[in-house]
Amino acid sequence: MNRDEMLNNVADFKEKWDFIIVGGGATGLGTAIEAASRGYKTLLLEQSDFAKGTSSRSTKLVHGGVRYLKQGNLSLVLEALKERGILRGNAPHLVHDLPFVVPTYDWWEGPFYGIGLKLYDALAGKEGFGSSKLLSKGETLKHIPTIETEGLRGGVIYFDGQFDDARLSINMAETAFEQGTTLINYFKVTSLLKDEEQIVGVEAIDMETNKKYKLNTKVVINATGVFSDSIRKMDDKSVKNIITSSQGVHIILHRSFLPGDSAIMVPETDDGRVLFAIPWHDRVLIGTTETPVNEYPLEPVPFKEEIDFLLQHAARYLTKDPSRSDILSTFAGLRPLVKSGDEENTAAISRDHTINISRSGLVTIAGGKWTTYRKMAEDTIDHAAVLAHLDLEPSVTQELQIHGYHNHPDEFGDLQIYGSDAMAIETLLREDKSYKELLHPNFSIVAGEVIWTVRYEMARTVEDFLARRTRLILLDAKASIEMAPVIAKLMAKELNKNKKWIKDQVINFIEVARKYIVS
Question: Which one of 22, 35, 145, 174 has the fewest CB atoms closer than 10 angstroms to its CB?
Fold first, then answer.
């Protein structure tokens, strides 16, 4: 993928796009894959970087949703479990099985959670990742050697999926491109074009050059997550908001807090949430919170009480109590929830997705969850194709491999997150010995990876590289700041930028990264 080539595609395209998709997160990218793989002419526009928002800030789980099972939402669990299996089959380089242990401290917890998780297994059927079973105290300690032992009776083990959300987003962008999508980051839609009260296109601006565009299409698809209502109000200022949001916060700790290969799942915290402690990229991720919010910034910031909540609950289940000084990074994400009546408790609002079609033809896809992005996209294009008066082509995405597909990515060592691209990266690293230089002594990331992501993954800023092409800002925010100057210089050379750009990039990144550091 190359941004300049994408811009040339837009300039050279003289017809009317079948679909213009607004939003480059999981839903938008999935919808682009769905549309383009059916043969429709598709353009995707993202105001920032791909997966800048919610889609890079998840709990890193591809799961059916044990919590929804508790709520009795079996249809959502069934759909998610099916999609979980499809995603593992199509992106095995980024999605893998992960054992979860539910520790039990009361006599009734083992049978109670054991029965519930057997139902979870049954619903998964042939798409199951493994069979749940009861564990003795000794078996529980083998899986979770740092679990709190006082009062521990045993546990229940079950299996779900884990992934790297931002890396999957980038590979989805590449898949969409390979299927024929033109997609551009840092390209903001500013208004909708209408003819006789029907939407016929968008006005947009290239955020890098400030050049304005008018682009025609048969249907505009609004896939902007928590920002969905802002696009809907471009269509009709009088519409009522359909989106509400809660903020989910995570903290990252050193691997010593959870040294095994299993995760911990706490099915109910003090306020009824599910809490996870998960091994991820040789770190420990703990989350999440669910705090209602009224403002939706691109870079949400954790609240002090959310950090305290996670530390407090982590201390209950780990022998070594984490403190604020142990936190390597913290991040917040905003969940796009669709309002249902006067529901105020965001922890109780379902993640079912909703498709809204306005009188003037704006298609909005909202709600849902990462695991079900493909089904959301399929449903969206089924509706949008009818609205656009297109021949309804069948979906092919259940068996469409995601870019980077490889069954044994561990063969590539430190480059395994790139899947099949690792071989091309290894070739690139041989071009210049400086490309093999480490960017930081605590990480295996090398200079050549910066070159790769700029040339082939549309990385445009230092933040793009440190936050989404790699996950270094999440793994150690302070270390990511130390790397920023070197990365800015490498990117500047590739992008033909000057010294002022380098200085501005470092300043901008430090401003962002400080929000990930707990004081």
Answer: 145
